Amino acid sequence: MVKRNKRCDILITGFGPFPRVPVNPTAVLAERVGGSRRLARLGIRAEHHVFRTRYAILDKALPTRLAAARPRAVLMLGVATRARHVRVETRAVNKANRTAPDASGKTHRGAALAKGAPLVRRSPAPLARLKVAMAGTGMPVRRSIDAGRYLCNASYFTALGQLEDKRPSIPVVFIHVPMPSAWASSPTPRPTRKDSPQTGAPAKVRRPTLAAMARALETAAIVLVRESARRQMS
């Protein structure tokens, strides 16, 4: 008889390096949130996994990890290098960029991620509540309908497809984070008068620190786990 591992409450995933991003902040964030003392104090059993940024993970590594962890909720992380806001991705599309190489130098074979699959898969997570909760930590957050055409979108589409038939539905969400302002643990600095706009134009949003993003993502994890518990009881 095969002994199955105990289900985790939430699985947090990140990515390793890829072309032009030699250090991926989501690898650090996934580890921090997965090992969060705050989550542990709340009795939340979290696991984390950092995937290689390769299309090959879609066939085996990602499905295998999801099956092994049997998570009640999933928080997936990716980096958007030009962004200054955290982006909560509402959906993934069945499209791939055939010109952008992954960390192994390979590109996706076709324009579609999966033949015969739907064009769009939407997150079953409580996105509005998630956005409000993260913004409550001081994090600039936006909802997004475009997760790109790279591994972020591809992994999101794959995970949603693998878990879409689970009942009750498992809250799965992909969150894009910006590159942190610095690799430091200090809180995000508040703008001073000198930083304020002189002409009435909107102030440029500063990139958040790694520590600030970790706090916001811990909050997101709590929202997802509580939503999962609510669905189990309904």
TrEMBL record:
The keyword Cytoplasm applies. One of its GO terms (biological process) is proteolysis. Residues 94-113, 181-207 are annotated as: Disordered. One of its GO terms (molecular function) is pyroglutamyl-peptidase activity. It comes from the Bacteria. Keywords: Cytoplasm, Hydrolase, Protease, Thiol protease. Gene3D superfamilies: Peptidase C15, pyroglutamyl peptidase I-like (3.40.630.20). InterPro entries: Peptidase_C15, Peptidase_C15-like, Peptidase_C15-like_sf. Signal peptide: none annotated. Belongs to the peptidase C15 family. This is Pyrrolidone-carboxylate peptidase. It comes from Chelatococcus daeguensis.
